[in-house]
Design brief:
The protein is mainly alpha-helical. It has three helices and no strands. One of its GO terms (cellular component) is cell division site.
């Protein structure tokens, strides 16, 4: 048996045992932690991208609505009967008679 004066270095034995026999356990535990952190990071990135995608879809819809409104406005304002009615009523313009026309030849 051991005498009272002889002591075992318990801390050294525990550390030796921990790092020698359980290297695989520590490696697997660290891989699990890394995998968990990677999963959290990917989930965060995905949620951010989904939110940005939703905002871009709303912007696209707003731009499409504005484009349709501009096309309708262009079609309305470019109509020759509307332009002619504005010219006659607001600007008091008349059609040019053929005897008032001047043709310039070079």
């Amino acid at each position: 048996m051991l005498e009272n004066s002889e002591r075992y270095p318990l801390q050294n034995i525990l550390m030796e045992d921990l790092f020698s026999s359980t290297k695989l356990v520590i490696l697997l535990l660290s891989l699990i932690l890394i995998s968990a952190m990677a999963t959290i990071w990917v989930t965060h990135q995905t949620r951010g991208l989904i939110s940005e995608n939703g905002q871009l879809i709303l912007q696209r819809q707003a731009l499409e609505d504005e484009y349709r409104n501009l096309q309708l406005q262009e079609a309305t304002e470019g109509d020759s009967t509307r332009v002619e009615s504005i010219a006659i009523s607001t600007l008091k313009m008349k059609r040019v008679d053929s005897n008032q026309e001047v043709v310039i030849l070079e």
